[in-house]
Amino acid sequence: MKEVAGKVAFITGGASGVGFGMAQAFCAAGMRVAIADIRSDHLDAAMAHFEGIGRRANVHPIRLDVTDREALSEAADETERHFGHVHLVCNNAGINLFGDIAEATYDDWDWILGVNLGGVVNGVQTFLPRLLEHGEGGHIVNTASMAAFIAGPAAGIYTCSKFAVRGLSEALRFSLAPRGIEVSVLCPGLVNSAIHESARVRPARLASTSGSSDREFMARLADLHARAGMTPLEVGDKVLRAIRRNDFYIFTHPEFKEELREIFAEALEALPEETPPPARLAFEERRRALKAQALLARRDG
Ligand code: NAI
Question: Which residues have C-beta atoms less than 6 Å from ligand 1?
Answer without folding.
Answer: 12-13, 15-19, 37-39, 42, 64-67, 92-95, 115, 143, 145, 188, 190-191, 193-195, 201, 225, 229
